[in-house]
Design brief:
It is built from 17 helices and no strands. It has 401 residues and is mainly alpha-helical. The chain is globular and about 55 Å long. The relative contact order is 0.14.
């Protein structure tokens, strides 16, 4: 793999740490600024909404520029956002820093996925994207415990200073190690938006919403499941979530390799497995050993879909991948919001703390139906996406099985 992918992965790690690292520090932030826990929680939810906005709006605004320069600019924005957060004298300015950092999140991964895939051969694109997303999954493994530990020892601002430094290193790495890219603007914005007329692009977006909604539907309220259903002590929850994070790290790379061999078959298998594991988790959540196994598998299977989902979207929008890639990143975050919202409705309805897992299973089952149905029209869609020029048979076989 090209060494430039390491620089992209480091950028992804910093961005992921920004998203997850504050979770364990919300009490300290709330106490420092004398705000309620609810207001402190908005630093997380507003970040997620800003990611979705940036993935579409910012990507649309920058699509005409050279992709390497875009990545450099986005990392500069990321550094600025975390620097604002580190020195923020009040809650309002901290929120501004969070929004600024979040705006680059979706655009970085959408443009970075295109750059990463362009750096390798056709049969290695899934693995390249998985390596870049590996930084994000590594942050998922380390973000909460590492960010919390550092913030508790040296103050919550130290976490943002550390992330700022990571951003500077990633910026230098991208500038030095990522090869010069062609301008993304060979097609205009209208051409980029034209990909949304294709049914298979919408199939990919819907699948991304349902896949991530399925995982997050259960994960958002997992602390309540672990303590109130499984019987674990509250103090063990952060370390149990490392188990989930380790699963996401494994699943990301395994899913990327599998997607390179057989894209739609891999996604169908993942959605079927995710449906089963979420259902089994809900049924066995009172057993601690079964819960540990299910937590690991939920992370592994759930995030195994990420590289394939990104590759699938870009496959059906190969003539204008940047905007479609950004839409897919936005879809991930819409799925996060949908899963959390539906899980909350299940709890509010009195179905118990295992009910979000059933919500996740239902969303995963819906995703299975979508990808199975969408796979039938795949070969024709790839031909249309390539501008009416029929792709080589081996390319179709490798990418859309």
């Amino acid at each position: 793999m090209p060494i430039g992918l390491i620089a992209l992965a480091l950028g992804g790690f910093g961005i992921g740490l920004t998203e997850f690292g504050i979770v364990g520090l919300l009490p300290e932030v709330a106490g420092d600024f004398h705000v309620s826990g609810t207001l402190a929680g908005y630093l997380v939810s507003v970040y997620a909404l800003s990611v979705a906005v940036g993935a579409l709006g910012l990507t649309a605004a920058i699509t005409r520029f050279d992709r390497k320069k875009i990545l450099v600019g986005l990392m500069t924005l990321f550094i600025a956002g975390n620097l604002i957060s580190a020195i923020a004298p009040n809650y309002e300015l901290l929120m501004v820093g969070r929004v600024v950092a979040a705006l680059c999140h979706g655009a970085f991964f959408s443009v970075g996925a295109v750059v990463a895939s362009d750096m390798v051969a056709e049969d290695k694109k899934g693995g390249a994207i998985a390596l870049m997303f590996g930084g994000l999954t590594a942050a998922n493994v380390l973000g909460v415990p590492l960010g919390t530990f550092l913030g508790q020892q040296l103050g919550w601002r130290s976490t943002f200073w550390a992330i700022t430094i990571i951003g500077v290193v990633a910026l230098i790495g991208i500038q030095v190690l990522v090869p010069q890219t062609s301008a993304a603007g060979r097609t205009d914005l209208r051409a980029e938006l034209a990909v949304f007329r294709r049914g298979q692009v919408w199939v990919s977006i819907a699948l991304s919403i349902l896949a991530f909604g399925g995982v997050i539907g259960g994960y958002t309220y997992i602390a309540f499941t672990l303590t109130d259903v499984s019987g674990f002590a509250a103090s063990t929850v952060p370390w149990l979530l490392v188990l989930f994070g380790a699963g996401t790290f494994i699943g990301n790379f395994v899913g990327g390799k599998a997607a390179d061999k057989s894209l739609n078959t891999t996604l169908i298998s993942i959605m079927a497995a995710l449906t089963v594991i979420m259902g089994v988790f809900a049924l066995t959540a009172e057993n601690k050993i079964a819960t540990l196994v299910a937590l690991l598998l939920m992370g592994t299977i759930g995030l195994a879909s990420a590289p394939g989902l990104q590759v699938r979207t870009m496959k059906y929008a190969s003539d204008a991948p940047t905007m479609a890639s950004g839409a897919n990143i936005a879809a991930f975050n819409v799925g996060n919001a949908l899963g959390a919202w539906l899980g909350g409705l299940a709890l509010a309805a009195g179905y118990g703390y295992a009910s979000p897992l059933w919500v996740g299973a239902g969303l995963a089952l819906a995703g299975l139906v979508v990808v199975a149905g969408g796979s039938f029209g795949g070969r024709t869609a790839v031909s249309k996406a390539s501008g009416g020029v029929a792709p080589r048979p081996e390319a179709v076989e490798a990418g859309v099985q």
